[in-house]
Design a protein that fits this description.
By secondary structure, the protein is α+β, with helices and mostly antiparallel strands. It contains 2 helices and 4 strands. It has one domain.
Length: about 100
Amino acid sequence: MKINFERTGGFAGIKQAVSLDLDSLSVEDSSALQKLIKDADLFNMPVPDTQPAARDGFQYTITIMWENEERILRVSDGSIPNGLLPLLNDLSLRARANRR
């Protein structure tokens, strides 16, 4: 499974991104991400109504490639489904660490 994550917007307009191949992560990291993806039910989640981001708000794009499926989900701060929030938080932290 591969994950591409991007967060754009915000006050400073700083882009944060990270690409992950779960096969190259530790077993613990891979398992934790798979659980977050499963809990968010990304492959069955209806595409949220993407509202324009609030001024200085963030926009998120998550692309997950697994077997022969690809799911691209775009949300903004005003349209994040509750089940997606833990995954967004985790990926945001990984993207921030990736910038260092």
